[in-house]
Amino acid sequence: MNLGIKGKTVLVTASSMGIGRAAVDEFIKEGCNVAICSSSKDNLLKAVEEIKTQLNIEPFWTVCDINKPSDIEKTVKLVEEKIGNIDILVNNCGGPTPGYFENLSDDEWEYAFNQVLMSAVRFTRLVLPGMKEKHWGRVINVTSLSVKQPVENLILSNSLRSAVTAMSKTLSNEYGKYNITFNNVAPGYTLTARLYELAVSRAKESGESHEHVLAQMANNVPMKRLARPDELGAYIVYLASEQAGYITGTTTQIDGGIIKSTY
Predict the structure, then answer these.
(1) Is the dihedral of CA 19, 25, 28, 33 positive or negative?
(2) Which of 33, 156, 223, 258 has its CA 20 to 30 A from that of 75?
(3) Could you report the per-residue pLDDT of 177-206, keeping only the tens digit for each?
(4) What is the pTM of this model?
């Protein structure tokens, strides 16, 4: 299927690995001009080399700490200067610190606030003028199944990713007249470095091995397996397509059926 986004400029944040990286690969396959960023230069360089080897193209890349407003402004400016105004923005970030309410400090809340919510606010604010001018745009936020079914020991993620979801729904109402869509992808348990970290954290609490914890996670999913990042990447790219132009204000869980509610 031709998704109608060949030549579009795409920025995927926190995209040197995991779901962000998977989305990058899929956008490149669709012929988009893709920019990637990460706070780790080493991870970026590794990702760029892998992409060059696998897809025979070198994406534009820049180091960006999404907790820093100045880095966000610099990144958007560089992308616009080097490859054009951003048509498609994928707001992605690493997961906040695990922990229970009484064990988390103000500093940890503040860090997660900037990492999860304010990074999405700041990137979105910067790209909207160009999208309005073109009368076309896509903003896709990678959140978590926790926005529909809170996850134990992840109160920071549960709280702040839900804020991103509410913001996105509000913006979909405000900017629909400009042909700009806002949607959220809510991954379930996906084979990424973040999931591995959560498994190690839970293993320390339970005294079990992290391998056992991962196997338990998979067993709790009706499909009896964990998601692959490319499965998330493919859906993200579909939401950016011309065919998805009438889809806005939604939050779709890609979770193998683990969320129990009917909506």
Answers:
(1) positive
(2) 156
(3) 999 999 999 999 888 777 777 777 777 878
(4) 0.93
57 in Cβ contact with 28 (< 8 Å): yes
Q: In the chain, what is the greatest distance between 2 CA atoms, to the nearest angstrom?
A: 56
Query: pLDDT digit string (tens) for 215-260?
Result: 888 888 999 999 999 999 999 999 999 999 999 999 999 999 999 8
| CA dist., res. 97 & res. 50, Å (int) | 29
Separation of alpha carbons 195 and 221, rounded Å: 14
Domains, the chain, in order of start with CATH, read 9-189+227-254 (3.40.50.720)
Q: How far is CA 80 from the centre of its chain?
A: 20
Question: Among residues 186, 36, 168, 163, which one has the least CA distance to residue 112?
Answer: 163
Give the up-direction half-sphere exposure of residue 212: CA atoms within 13 A in the CB hemisphere.
8
Give one DSSP letter per residue of the chain, joined into a string: ---S-TT-EEEESS-SSHHHHHHHHHHHHTT-EEEEEES-HHHHHHHHHHHHHHHS---EEEE--TT-HHHHHHHHHHHHHHT-S-SEEEE--PPPPPB-GGG--HHHHHHHIIIIIIHHHHHHHHHHHHHHHHT-EEEEEE--GGGTSPPTTBHHHHHHHHHHHHHHHHHHHHHGGGTEEEEEEEE-SBSSHHHHHHHHHHHHHHTS-HHHHHHHHHHHSTTSSPBPHHHHHHHHHHHTSSTTTT--SEEEEESTT---S--
Q: Which two tokens stand for residue 233?
A: 């990447």
Question: CA torsion angle for 94, 232, 43, 60 (degrees, to 10)?
Answer: -110
CA 95 centroid distance within chain: 10
